[in-house]
Records
---
Amino acid sequence: MNTYAVLISTGIAHSFSYDEFWNDTVCVWNNLRNPSSNNGQGIDDNNIFVLYGTDGTDFKDEEGRMTKYSVKRDKRTLDIEGLQKRDRETLTDYAASRENIEKVFEWLASKDDVGMVFVWTFGHGFRDGSESYLVMNDGSRYTDTEFTSKINTLKCDTRIICMQQCFSGGFIDNLMRDKRNIVLTSCSDSGFAYPADNDFDPKDVELDKDQNGVIYNHGEFNHHLCNALSNTEILNLSKIEFGNHDGFCDAMMNVFNYVSSSNTVEEATQYFDIKYGWCAGKKLKEDCVRSVWSFGCDTNNENPDERDDLIEFSYPMTELYNEEQDKKIYLSINGKLKHIFKMERGKDKYRVRLNKQGKFGLEGWFIADYYHRLIYFKGTIIGKEEKPYCIGHVPKSAYYHQMDPANGRECSIIVFNWV
Amino acid sequence: MSIPIEVVKLNVISKKSSVVKGDITAIKSINGSLLAMSQTKSSFNIYEGANPSSLNLTHQFEKNIQYPGGILKIGEEYHILDSNKKLIYMLDKSISRPEPQVLLTSIKVNTASAILNACNSSITDMEYHDDKIWFACMAGYSSSICSYDIITGHLNFGFYTIGSRPNGILYNNQRDQFMVLDSKRNSISNYSKDGTLSMVNQGSMQKGNQGVDLKDNRPIVTKGLAIDSDDQLWVMSQKIVRQRVSPVINRQKGV
């Protein structure tokens, strides 16, 4: 049995920006293939597949100054079914296209000697509704569902998946359904990944700089992941026997603890395995509490005339904690600010009357109760049968009381509260 | 694909100026002249003029925006951005007070809202073009340009920026392109409206008569982006707020 690795970097490196899309690919590859005697993970280079960029070639800057991460591999022949047979010495085996990624996974799924697979992804990530995805270099989306369906075809007992892209935590709810997956992501399903920067503490500055003065950039998560991969005291994959999934869980939990505690930017590192469950790194400070309500439960309709209105209550945290008297809660409907509830008023209410071609309607009042620190809706919902639902901050004491289902749905519901 | 890189002169407007009361918080181009906003302890002030040394006070109004991040003049109306709340205000001249107009975070119809609603994103600057308010979102690797259509009320994702610190946006009518300032390297990226990158300008900073090439060892960071009637590019200077830290500690023998 063997360990395999698939490194996928869908971002495009430039000499003037985002060179880390290349630099980090090299760093991860190098730390994986270095023997444990040299503080690496000892994966046979013949079993490491690198997918980068748009045309299957390595990154080179125009002036030829950025040489630190130019590498040569031992010459080898790649012969993966469905992909062109080729002799390569470059780091990049294939362009990071959807087709190539899937062919590599399909080829791995067809093999019987795969004991463990290590997968690493980097590039732009995005989220749309409940789906996170990796943005491919042609702009298309490789969704969490599509990615998971390919990963789950691999026959091995353990797959380790490390992801640096934005919103990567959104892959976990898909990948966790197969207990063989161990997942480490740079951020949550609603957060960004950042370059290796520090907004708050300018001490301890050590630039990755070569003798020509060229400065090389890295991703924050990758920076700490590479430190872990290049330190056998934190992670030593070659010491764990294939089939010992608990052993891999212990080892990667160690990596998670290291990466999340080392992270100095606003990333909430996420982790999942079957042994330790779903773990999150530091809790981020949020600038705003938001409750977004849909009373008709059809927010994804392509036709704006049939799409439900989205009603948002938001409350900037900065106002929550300061001593100012004029604290405010913003009410907006479909992005248009409709009302500001001002606390010094004592009592405040807003008349809401929405109607979408008779199919859906909302008629009543949003009433602020400052004594109990909440806003509630009282009135009638016309149309849909479903219970209203809230995205974001769900008021803790929310209740739904349906009074007269025969004539529309007269109800009372708490839509927002604050401490 | 090779992207041409050219050096361009960036003129710096200091945060404090002899012709402006308080600290400058935003600059913008309008019809070949400059628009600037400053804040004092108690008020916001709007100035207009051909260049920074000839700015004239046009409006003074109540200071009720917590994180002023950009200013626009559409027709005769002034629009002001709260960077962190992602709230666009319109100045009501009759009461000398900005009134909230659009809360961008609550428009949840496409992927742009994922950026605006994620933790710690901020809108750093905005520009008006083609019936849309285009704005620069600073959001790690998801830093991007998005737009709000003032006719339809739709929010749209435009394109990723080359760089994680877009701090100024300008629509260049002559080139029919967006210019986006990235304060990490003081570079300006030039994009067509579909996000195609055509050129990168490395900024060479001019303060007074002395050019300072800041590159990475910069004493200040830049913000905002405007062009005057002489085609001079202007940015604001701010104290350094971010600093890069140690990247991968290399145990990578053989690389």
---
Amino acid sequence: MPNDDFAEWIRPHIGSLARISRAFAAPADRDDLLQELMLSVWKARPAFRGDSAVSTYVFRVAHNRALTWIGRKKQQGVREAEISAQAHLLWGVDAEDGAQLEQLYAAMQALPPMDRSLLLLMLEGMSYADIGALHGVSVSNVGVRLHRARAELNRLVAKEASDEA
Amino acid sequence: MKPEDIDRLWQSPANRITQKAEDIMLDKVLKNIRRSRRGFHIFTGYVAAVLGGISFVAGYTAVKRESFDWGQEWGVFALLGLCWCVLILIRVQHRRHERAFPYGHMNLSDALAAMQAANALTRLRLKVMGVGLLVAVPLMGAGLWQLQAVGKMSAQNVMQFAMLAGGALSLSVLVNLVRYFRVHMPEAKRLQQLRSE
């Protein structure tokens, strides 16, 4: 399977993968996790049979990988400085939204990984039924857990904001 | 922050990766894939060339040399055959591994269960290997003692071999212990925690 074909196939989903890496990895490791997620999708692509939307398949592979990924946690300070210096190249520029997003991602990282995954999928616009299928839980369970996770996220975001103020 | 604020923020341009970054990331992953493939092909190609050279010389000698005794010198061909088999096996395994993310078709719950089972199996293998290595020590000692007793090895030979094999065995045990306690046990705990969530 030619790599150029893969490039066109994965391109519409790189943004979602980048957001997953931002929610699951420390700033210094985000680049590595994004590469790892893309590599996992590349490896998993031959098994895609078209029985679900491409985005659902990509999310499934990426969340599977992100949940079990362990960052390097080395030279964190040095790499974080490098990353923050390059951040404007990676993400859209809007100082106010950018700062709020950092608080949001920091709050998400404080959530348990499964709740983080559920919230990410919901924010990416997946239906409860698709989220349930991806997580292997019932739709009602997704609803209950998301309700709790959102409440916890709101509390954590408020805490992040007050810590920074 | 209200839920609608979070949704708005999530959809905002500040949460979109730039086109330039998208290109860079894509280029990087494709380069990594190509580099990994190339490195592997160079390595196995080099090994195949060396093995091919040795096989050619061995084959040529066996065919051309009248004094070659197949009955007594077949060992080198068995060894070469084994090396070729291992090389082919490595290539096949690498290809399978390169094109497989085994948990792609599973939901998260099943994938975590499968990862936990794989982790348990790996730990079991390490335990079996550890026991095997520990059992090998007295067996090796007994073997050396017997060889010395029947006069096929001197005390000095026994000592040298015991030191060499003992060092190799100790290193293997150490590597397996580190893998078990530093890699696979924490992984098992992490997977258990994820599943319990």
---
Amino acid sequence: MVARTLWGLALVLLGWPLLLAAKDLPINTRLGGDFTLQSTVVDKDQLSDFKGKLVLLNFGYTSCPDVCPMVLSRMTQVMNTLEEDSKETRAQVQPLFITFDPERDTLEKLGAYLKHFGPDFIGMTGTPEQIAAVAKQFGVIYLPQKSDSAAGTLFAHSDYIYLLDDQGRVRALFSTKEPIDDMVDAVESLLDK
Amino acid sequence: MKNLLAAIVLWSLAGWGWADTALEAKEGWVRWVPPVSQNSAAYFTLHNHGDKTATLVSASSDVAAAVEIHNVVKQGEVMSMQKQDKVEVGSHKSVQFQPGAYHVMLIGLKKPLLEREAVILTLHFADGASLTVPLTVSKDPGQSGNDADHQHHHHH
């Protein structure tokens, strides 16, 4: 019995990478859900407006000097790699950026900032309460820091890129260490179906 | 008097010699940011070839209203930015200023950065020495960490 359990465990452990290779990204049932915010693009202010497309989602703020532009440019690299395949492939993925600094990040500023990362990047903002609710849905942490920096308020924050499937379900979280290729592979695995 | 003068000359020569050869900054770049963004960051590798610990205490540049040294510290899942009063580089050691780690923050950019533009950053050390670091504005030269090896996606 014990041996059988161990054997089963070993199969599960060994099978895990095989499962990933077999392009079965698990559905994260703990995170996600629909939300409505203000958007830089008319009629695209709700997550469910992107149904049928995959979404690459990230949270940050435009005054962020280091981490956020790095993460956004990683999203750009993923999108550009998809475009190498075809424009249609790129069009099946929606890059989305939600600010947790609504005070400084107006829709106008978000739009002007994001267009430099790609023409298809959409930005969202809302009231502090709305943003807090969406952040909670995705397990995003952001804390304004007390600092004597001339940059004013800086945020301590998590920096995952979330990959959502065409139903808006969370399928993968990418840290800043994730190779671009692996992110592209994960996106393509959801497109192949 | 002559000896004193000679001593001063020798001392200052030695001083300059130390400043020129002991400290070196390589692979300097500034992250290009969209023109609406007021802030950016500068990255480089700081080498200390000298026999004494070098203590970086501040930095300056004409392109920004304020220049600060920061470090990004990962606490659990959260990246936290922390302003640094000093960064020590041990004898014959180097410290990497890179995305998600030590970086020099350029705050209040006086005008939008242009890609491939040259920017001059000056590093100031506790002993009074300074080091001029030439930087190139770039969207993402090395990207973060190890991605440089993975730039080309192989289709399968």
---
Amino acid sequence: MPIHHPRPFMTVSAAPQPSASTEQRKRPLVVMRSVSKMFSSGTLALSGMSLTVENGEFVSLLGPSGCGKSTALRIIAGLGDVSAGSIDWPSSRINAKGLPEGDISFVFQEPTLMPWQTVFGNVHLPLKLRGISKHAARDDIIATLATVGLKDFADAYPRELSGGMRMRVSIARALITRPKLLLMDEPFAALDEITRQKLNDDVLRLWKETGITVIFVTHSVFESAYLSNRIVVMKARPGRVHADFPLVTSLERGPNYRTSEEYRATCEKVSHSLLEAIGFPQDGHGEIH
Amino acid sequence: MDAVDVPLAPKPSTFLSRNSDTLLRVFIPIGVVAVLVVIWHIGVVASGVPPYILPSPVAVAGALYKDWPTLLPALWVTAKITLASLALALVGGGGIAILLAQSKWIETAFYPITVILQVTPIVAISPLILIYAPTTQVALLICAFLVAFFPILSNMVQGLKSVDHNLLNLFDLYGASRWQTLLYLKLPSSLPYFMTGLRIGGGLALIAAVVAEFAAGSAGAGSGLAFRLLEAQFRMNIPRLFAALFLLSCLGVTIFAVTSFISWLSLHRWHESSIKREN
């Protein structure tokens, strides 16, 4: 499906073509250096977390609940400051508040739509906040709605849509600003398995077609193994990186990939790492901590 | 038993079937009221109660017709005070709520004052207001305003504070200004709360307008229905008292209907409270 996009498309399989912006593209999108975050309640959510995300990556942040995945994602988005360490966005414009401007979109766990606005109005929001009128944004909004399969629902209100469709609206809203970096915080956790797989495929397709960088928070080993080309396993209390492995596959990710030996092996490897992170004994005899 | 394929079709739609629900909802209450009025009439006629104790509905209707030239201006005065005070309360309550929501400090500093104003019985303040206000009309307006103001304020403050945190995060992420966040997020999402305040405030404004006029004891040509009520009581003109009461009820019902309609109009497309459940 065609996507209106100002930047040249980057496909994953093709080698990056050298161009004037190669230098620009080589710079990582996000650099976290031993970031710690303590909430006002005294909870240490993150401790010394370092993470560098390169352009074009699909990174899954995987970990048990309460391991600070969402906190890390919010910090990457520039929502909330860090207690120690530093975070940089080397390839973004930085505004007066020291935050990246316009390059980052966020998809929350819930669709987080404005119930008083139609689908069209909800997707228009990021542009409206930049002073772009409904009229000027119309074509762009319709095209973006088409990429998530909601072209015919522009005038519907969120309450008229199913959970999966609301999530698509949320994704369309995230894509409308053509961000470099898409942050997704367990976006499909509340959906049924079938809808979830469908949306996973959609996100993969969008990633391939637009060359957008994705950081995807999940607690599902299978989801992370299916989607990403890099998995970062996190350890809880306080949150920090436990393991970080690339996921290179020559296979096309699709229904066949789910049944491949490679996928199974990846899931096993990731599961082991996750168990380690949680602190389960590997011999299978000891007590569970 | 074998499953039989029954074609599923909506029931045939006639005028009666489409509107039967609405018709029932209109006609049943009207019917009940009509029956009560008839019982009232028969009761008065049969028992021979004198009209200066309990007039029959016919006598009340007669008084309404005969005293219309006195009652109409009074109704108009009361309606004006009620509506003006409600309008002021909407602007004032909404405006101050927005101000309070701007910062925690402003709220901490000023919210208690608004509570003190509210919990002090209005009848107790009205003598003071009567002294300070230039005219009785203004005094009545201030009293009614003070009463209608608080539910609108407190509902609106609640609404402005109940904004979805993730939507706030989203607005921050897109670099929305304070003004944009207020206009596009906080105001629309507090609309249901504001509407609740409007409906409560509308009813209270009328009550306060009447009570304040009782307390003011104003008299003469420019007075409202409350004065006409007292006047009718002094003169033992009970049919007229009932007629004045009837007009006050009508005014109250109209305010309720209009505020409910405004509320429905602004919320029916998206808010759960205004959407018919389809099961």
